[in-house]
Amino acid sequence: MYRAGDEFDQQQWLDDLDSVAGELQLDAEAKTTAKDIFLSAVPGEERSKPAVVAASVYAGSLIAGDQRSQTAVADAADVSRLVIQQRWKELLEEAGFDAPSW
Known about the structure:
Helices cover 69% and strands 0% of the residues. It has six helices and no strands. It has helices spanning 4-9, 11-23, 28-40, 49-64, 70-77, 81-94. The radius of gyration is 12 Å and the shape is globular. The N and C termini lie far apart (26 Å).
């Protein structure tokens, strides 16, 4: 779980997340879920944050039933698809969800 102050501290990255979600035309539930996942797993290193933003958007869209492909999310977030592939299940588990086994 995250603190209320985390949202303020990570506003730049939440703005990036909103931008990616907007480009993908995600619904409000998917965007909110992605935000919660991101804030639950904010990495300490700035260089890791774009990857976590992208993986959070992908995972949030899955949970909300507004799924987008890893490639579409990667393109919108300007990261590689491999980054999303490697991180999304871990982020789900860190946020308290059960990651699928497929």
